[in-house]
Every structure is written in C-alpha cells, then in structure tokens.
Amino acid sequence: MxxxxxxxxxxxxxxxAVDPDDEHPSRPSVPAALARATSELAEAGVESPxxxxxxxxxxxxxxxxxxxxxxxxMSAGELRRFExxxxxxxxxxxxxxxxxxxAFRHLELSVGDGVFIPRPETELLAGWGIxxxxxxxxxxxxxxxxxxxxxxxxxxxxxxxxxxxxxSPAALSFLRRNAAGFPSVRVVAGDxxxxxxxSFLRDQVDVLLCNPxxxxxxxxxxxxxxxxxxxxxxxxxxxxxxxxxxxxxxxAGLLRSGGYIGIEHDDxxxxxxxLLLRADGRFTxxxxxxxxxxxxxxxxxxxx
Length: 304
Ligand SMILES: C[S@@+](CC[C@H](N)C(=O)[O-])C[C@H]1O[C@@H](n2cnc3c(N)ncnc32)[C@H](O)[C@@H]1O
Description:
By secondary structure, the protein is an alpha/beta fold. It has 11 helices and 9 strands.
C-alpha cells in the first residue's frame, strides 16, 4: 500500500498491509512489497512496472521469478535491498544493469556500464541466422556488443567458428567474459567500417549478421537509453545508415557465393536497407522482415 507523502526510501514495515492472522506480523509480505514497488515504478514512468518489480524481488530473494508466488516474507535486509533497487529503477537505471544480466534467447549475458543491453527484437535476427546456419559454418557477427548474436548462434547451431567483432573497449571486456564458455567464438577488436577487416575470411563466410548502431542522430530516446546505452552503440549518423553502408560493402567481400547476410535496422529504414542491399549489385533474395509489433526490423539477402 502506498501512502501519499511518504517516499519508498523511508518505508517501514508498518507501511505494508498486515494480515491479522499473520504469524510474522513484523515482516512485510512479498505481495505487499511488490504492490508498493509496482505503483512506485508506474509513477516513475517505467514501462513494465509489475514485471520489473517481480524481477528485482526475485533477484533479492535469489529465487526464479516463477517461484515468487510461493514466497511469503522478506527479511529486513532483503526489504532494504529491494527498496534500494526499486528506487534506482524509479530513477530509470535499466533493469538489466541492476540485475547485472540480460536474457537473450537461451542465454544470460553479463551487462553493465559501457555495453549495449541486448534487446528482445534482436532475438529475431539471431533466430533467422540460426535457421540458415549450416553445420560447420563460418559465421561473422559485426558490432557484437555483449556477444548476444554470436553466442546465440554458437549456442543453438553447430558453426565451426563465429567471429564476434566489436570496437568499444568497454563492450569488448563484457564480450570476452560472455564468450568464455564458447570455444567456437573468436573475439576480434576491430572497426566494421574498415574495408580490410577480416580480410583473411574473404569469400569464405557462410552467415554474416549485424545489429549496428542505427538510430538517426538527434532522435529522442527514453532515459534508460540516453543515459545508459553508449551513444556509439545507438546512433548511426545523420540518417542512421553511417555504419550500415560500409557493412553492406564489407559483407559482400567476405561472404561466399550463396552465403547469407542479415542486418537489423531502425523502423524508419524498412525500405532504405533493402535498397542498399539491392544497389550493391552482389546480393539476391533481398527480403524485408518485421518484428513482433509489425515494425520493419531487419533485412536479409544472399550473396550471388
Ligand atoms: C546496437 S549495439 C548491438 C550490440 C549487439 N550486437 C546486440 O545486438 O545486442 C551496436 C554495437 O556496435 C558497436 N560499434 C559501433 N560502431 C562500431 C564500429 N565502427 N565497429 C565495430 N563496432 C562498432 C557498439 O560499440 C555496440 O556494441
């Protein structure tokens, strides 16, 4: 129960609804703590307040979210920690930074300051790459960030090798940590706009995937993105295509004949990116894909 005029950081146990038949009246119930946190997060403009409150509570209680229904009480220490995390989330610190991990397909990736948090919509591009990836393939993931796409492909298909390319030193340290259990993944520090990148793989790549920075400069983004995702991971130049253009040319040189390319893009680029792939002249089967909300999200093609 939220009492107007009292901030969550000053909550005490009697701020929580107490069941008269309760055997432990001095300890707040999990449902009451969740209800209060949900309303605090909703007031702060958090998009999914109940889900975030549940994930933070599960994190504090060190149980899977699905077991929260069975959880009864929080100790004083757990309540304090939960309230601190809820207050930070209300300040629009990304949920994944508070948890230290982000879920991506079947993986839990390490995330934090300096690395882009993988998004659910990118699971679609990764899934497409997994579907077209033949056993023993050579795969390239450009702009790898945490390694979400590269590691999902390594996890769910049987590639011979996956080259995960990233430029940012901060992102590279998360990428190396996340890739530690994946012997097929090779981390490469490099710039995807460099036409000589991975030149030893010329005409040999079976699948090339890329989720580059693509938001046009100056576009308004939510506080979680503006304050916590690195700008170099989000913004892709005046029209959002500054990284995609050189990536198309680089990919055409690296892919073998019949090899696959998939590039995620902004929803304003549903025509522009397929056009860039056609204009290059070295791709066929150019296809535009929508995300689960029906927005243009990625484009695919095959090397002639
Ligand atoms: C939108 S994030 C995608 C990260 C990851 N692939 C994912 O889907 O979660 C773009 C990533 O590209 C990296 N990046 C930006 N420009 C780059 C460049 N020129 N060369 C290599 N990496 C670059 C950023 O540091 C960031 O990690």
